[in-house]
C-alpha cells in the first residue's frame, strides 16, 4: 500500500459542489478489416450515465427516440444470421458491435452481445475485455461490468479506470473510494493519469472525506504533479467545499501558469465565503494578466457585486465587460445581471435585461426579476410579472410567493392562480 501524506485537519465544512471534467483515456477506432485489435489500439471512455433502479426502461425509451432500436435489431439479426449459417464471427466484427453498443448505450443489446461472445468460450485479449467493460459501463450496467472485471485474470490501468468512472457516474462515491484504495495495491502510482485524482477528490468531497482528500493531495505532491492546472483546480474546489481557504489558496499559489479555470475556482471560493472585495480584486487581476473570463467567472463576480454597497456601479462595470467579451447573452450572466440590478435598486436596468433574455423558459431569471420588484417595494409590478410567469407555464420560487402573500395583506388565503 502506498504511503500517503497528510496535512493538518480542517474543522469547518460547507456543502460540496463539483464540476465535470471530460475524460479521454484511449480512442476507439472502428476496424476496417476483420482483424483482431492489437494492444496498441486505444479505447475512448465515454461519459457514463448514472444507473437508477429503472435505468433499463428509461434508457430503452431514450434510445427508441434516438433510433437505437434499429441498431439493436440489426445487431441481433446479424448474430442470428451468422449462427443460422454456421459461420463464426470474426473478432473485428465483435469489436464493431461493441463500439456501436457503447455509443448507443442500449443495455439490452449489450447483454445479448456479451452472452453471444461468452458462448463461444474463446479467451480474448485484454484490449477486447476492456472494450466490453466500457460497453457495460456506458450502458449503465455497473454490476455486469464489475462481474466481468472480477473474472479478468489480467487487468491494466484502463480496466481499473473504466470501472472507477462507472461507479462515479452511478453516484456510488463510497465504491469509488474503495476501488481506488484497492487499485493502489495493484497498480503502480506512476501509471495513474491525472484525471483519476480529479475524480477521487470529487468522491471525497461528496462523501465529506476531508482526511482522504488531504492524503491524495499529499500523494500528488510526492509525485511532483500537484502544480498541474487541472489538479490545482480540483484541489481548490475540494478545499473550498470544506471551508479550508488557506489550503485552497496554498494550492492556487503553487501553480506557475494559471488559466481561467483556476482563477474561477478561487473566485467561487471567495464568493462563497463572502470575501466580495477579494472577488473583485481577483477579477481585475485576471484582466491585468490577460486571462480570458468565462460565463461562470462573470456570473460569480456579479453575485459578489450584488452584495456590495456599490449602488450598482460594480454591476455596471461587469456588465460592460460581459458585453465586450460576448457573454452578456449567456443565461447565467443574464440572471446575474437581473439580480445585481434588482439588489442595487436599478429596477429599470434589471427590466431591460429581463426583456432581452433569450431563454424565456428559464425560471431563474423570472425569479430574479420578481425578487427585484419585491425588494424595491414594487408589489403591483411583481403581481403582474407573476401572472405572466404562470401564463408561460412556469412556477415561481415558493419563498417568493410566501413573501408576496405577506406583502399583499399578510393572509395565507391570498392566492395567485
From TrEMBL:
<dbReference type="InterPro" id="IPR046960">
    <property type="entry name" value="PPR_At4g14850-like_plant"/>
</dbReference>
<dbReference type="InterPro" id="IPR002885">
    <property type="entry name" value="PPR_rpt"/>
</dbReference>
<dbReference type="GO" id="GO:0003723">
    <property type="term" value="F:RNA binding"/>
</dbReference>
<feature type="repeat" description="PPR">
    <location>
        <begin position="362"/>
        <end position="396"/>
    </location>
</feature>
<keyword id="KW-0677">Repeat</keyword>
<protein>
    <recommendedName>
        <fullName>Pentatricopeptide repeat-containing protein</fullName>
    </recommendedName>
</protein>
<dbReference type="GO" id="GO:0009451">
    <property type="term" value="P:RNA modification"/>
</dbReference>
<dbReference type="Pfam" id="PF01535">
    <property type="entry name" value="PPR"/>
</dbReference>
<dbReference type="InterPro" id="IPR011990">
    <property type="entry name" value="TPR-like_helical_dom_sf"/>
</dbReference>
